[in-house]
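ARCHIVE CARD
SHELF: 3
SLOT: left
DATA:
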Amino acid sequence: MVSMTHNDASVVDEETFSVRRSIQIAASVDKVWRAVAEPEHVSRWFGRTVLDGVGVGATGTMTFPDYDVIPLRVEEYDEPRRITYRWNNDDALGTLPDSIDEATSTVFTFTLEESDGGTRLTVVESGFERTSDPRGNLESHRTGWDLELDKMVVLVEGEA
């Protein structure tokens, strides 16, 4: 029985329309970086991710079971410290699956720091004020980051 790190849940900031979660992972920065930045690793815990390259401007998709294909683009890339993605998440608008809607998309950034012999990973997703249902989307993404990042911790710590 492997004991997994216990982490606090995501928090919503209604003033900045953002969701934030900061967690401790008992694994190296390099391992966590691969989990959040390399599509084949992201696909193991999050949506099935495909990108046409590496670094800023790489585009692709993230696919979730029973859900649409979501366009994805890398906005910032500073290996192994920080990566930012932009994605569509506004179903109400029926945007084309092959393009990012600049008007309603949100961005999420993973920031990694060495901490206590492991890695401190913080994710912040913002831009919800531009979506069709800001509060509903904030709440669903708050729950989503709890579920998805918990899966990632189990995966990465299990391999550490």
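SLOT: right
DATA:
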Amino acid sequence: MYRCAMLALVAVFLAAPVWAIGPETSIRPAERQAETGQVSLSQTDAGLAEWVVGFRARALAQGIHAATFDAALEGVSYDPAIIKRDRNQAEFTKAIWDYLDTAVSDLRIESGRKVLGTWHDTLSRIEAQYGVEKEVIVAIWGLESAFGTFRGNAPVINGLATLAYDARRAEFFEGELIHALRILQEGDTTLAQMRGSWAGAMGHTQFMPSSFAAHAVDFDGDGKRNIWEDDPRDALASTGAYLKHFGWIKGQPWGVEVRLPAGFDHTLADRDITKLPGNWGQMGIVPVTGRLNDDDGPASILLPGGAEGAAFMIFANFAVLEKYNTADAYVIGVGHLSDRIKGGKAIEHSWPRHLRALSKPERIELQERLTAAGFDTVKIDAKMGPLTINAVRRFQKAKGLVPDGFPSLSILDRLRAL
């Protein structure tokens, strides 16, 4: 019995959405407010109740009916566990190879192919209407909710009210709460059914309320945009509508794994440097499978694991997937999972698994030390985005290192030794 229970637990772990098995570091559609400031956790139900009184006037001024507001906010309670999760969600970050081990596991690939078969006709109609490949929609479905099996069971209104009352991202979450109340007012779902992740992401493909307001569709024709029920049609079509809105190009790859030539100038692995695939090919870059096609449009070279890891040639659709979640690991996870569901091969190049991801305090220290050493990261925010990557690259060049921009512990140790 113990062995069966453990095998079942492993299966759940491998199938679960990434937010269900670790700190919620990804950002759902529209959830892109800057994270600044620290406040005390000593909030109370009484304080929340007082905030609700003030918020009521603001909500009614934006068209929320008094009956809708009162029914939804009656009995809300302050949830300190949500605030703690919000504070700590970015404390630790997985290395991309660890993330992909889970995101594109054999079980998730197999499950994706099964649901693709089950919902093939629906997904084909969605693809025809919105111009987004069915495998891409299935991959997002797989990463966001393990194909609908982990949609979240937290009361969305209570969670958003707690976060809106909290001072750190109050404006952002108050806006999301207004959208959530409007969803209830328009009758797309009920208060009891409106459940999701602790931060308010909802349904099969985890839309924030503002993204629902802008992109959700009634695909099954029942008069409601219902992304919460077991039937996933509205949610899957809404995802197609979302990607279409942001410019998805059907037939264009998100990216392809490539082999770099000996002596490759790693400063060219920069999102701001784009060339047609044929021009990259003239420099000795070759795809692991298939051929380079100039019809796919301009592309950049991405080294998400540094010079020791896999290299990708990425196209405009990569940036479209970033509208869903800005993390490179997530985009590669969706793209690669969609390729594997379609029958593509696994990533060929090995990853530098001897390295580990930097913790949040280490990422802040890296930015502070780079800036102090004359390699300004512009922001001290623990986010390893283009500004920090370019600062790392400049430091590497100055020290005669391979300028891949990878923020590793060895780079931090070199800065500490200055």
